[in-house]
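@channel sequence for tomorrow's demo:
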Amino acid sequence: MNSLQKTAYFLVILVFGSLVLKEGSFILVPMVWGVFFAFSLNPISNWFEKRRFPRGVAIVISILIVTLIAVGIFYLLLNQMVGLIRDVPEIGEKLQEKLSIYMDEASLLLGENWRDPAHKLEVWSILKLENLDETLFSTGKSLTLAGIIPLYIFLMMYYKDFFMAFLLKLSADSNEKVLLWVGDSGHIIQSYLSGMLRVTGIMVVLAGLFFYSIGVKYFLLFGVFIAVMNLIPYVGVVISSFFAILYVFLTTDSMVYPLLTFVVLWGIQLLENNIITPWIVGSQVKVNALAVILAILLGGWLWGISGMVLFIPMVGVLKITLERSYGLEAFGYLLSDDVPVNEEKENYLKLFLKKIKRKKIN
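structure tokens (generated this afternoon):
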């Protein structure tokens, strides 16, 4: 098989695989979430199983514990969310009022002709709900996905020995390699999710305490919003900070608080990126920044927000698979963050030049 055929096969597989992921998102997204949560809940289930609980009972208890905690947090957030929605008309009026003041000040500098009534910004029209049918459909779809994920988690945890036996029968290599690959992949997923959960909790505390200290009414809601959006690298923090600063700007009378909010959120982000996440999560995924950005963009295109979160550990698993597949080690290295040092760079350059000379001679 020549290089042209290999390239053609690769492109066909890439296009066909993208179509399957895109069109099958309704089935695949909850399944992948189920796999990831199954790896995360496995230690809890194993703890109950060691104490002679039947596997089915241990899994149900594990899911119930996590569900009760999630429901409690959701209830607290729902109360604050309802209060924020009630304040939306007042917030919209304040935004219109402040924009009007700034436009008056600009008119003094630029002249009265600058302010044309036809170009006034009608803020409240932005807050009106449109396309109610699409909103209800999306909500129903999300609830369906959220309801089927626990079923996936239970089945995957209950039949984990069955899946392991399937992989061993499927593999033509030694069983040790398969077991090592499954163990490392599970360790990456488990470490990533549990680590990011702890990082999210720390971010909630830090951001929530700051918003509480400056008198933000819905400090818990904004703390969780900042922390959850932070799970989407590079993009999430910009979006969440924008809305948080905008709310502080509209609910305070001084520009000091919005500027202080910007500085503190920027400082929290630096602290999280350089100290908290490396300390708690470490380099478990070990994927370079370029691969992470591409994974986020590809995941967002294929699966939306879920894809932007899930594709990062999935790329980590893909890297391990490529590194342990004969003939594909170079692609695994391409995804890694092992940047060559100066001596390695010189050696690679020498090897590259030798290959070029050999081709010229031949």
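heads up for whoever presents: The two ends are 21 Å apart (CA to CA).
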